[in-house]
Amino acid sequence: MYTSGLVIRLKNDEQFKASALTAIMGAGAFTAGPMQGDSVALVMEVDNAQSAQQWHDWLLAVPGVEAAEVVFVHWDEADRGGTHVAVC
After folding, report:
1. pLDDT in tens, 7-54
2. Which residues are bridge partners to 74 per DSSP?
C-alpha cells in the first residue's frame, strides 16, 4: 500500500475550486483536509507506485488545479521485510 501526502494549489476562483474539489473527492483515491486559502492537503492511498504516479498526473490535469506537491510518501513492502518512509 502506498500512502502519499500532497498539497494542491487551486486556481483563485471559487467556481474552479468547487468543481476541482468535487472531481477529486469523487475519484475515490483521496481524502481532503480543510482549505487553507487556495491550498488543500490530500491523502492518497493506492496499491502501488505506478498507480500513485497515475493519480498524481490525473490531479494535475483536473481543471482548476495549478500545482500538486508530494510532501510525504509511505510504502509497505512486507514481502521484503521492511517499511519505508520518505519525507520531502
Report:
1. 999 999 999 999 999 999 999 999 999 999 999 999 999 998 899 999
2. 3, 85
What letter would DSSP give residue 86?
Answer: E
List the grid coordinates of 57: 498526473
Q: Regarding predicted confidence, which is higher, 81 or 74?
A: 74
Residue 11 CA, chain-centre distance (Å), reads 16
Residues 6 or more apart in contact with residue 59 via CB below 8 angstroms: 6, 8, 24, 42, 65, 68
pLDDT at 78: 62
> DSSP of 10-77, one letter per residue?
E-S-HHHHHHHHHHHHHHSSEEEEEEETTEEEEEEEESSHHHHHHHHHHHHHSTTEEEEEEEEEEEEE
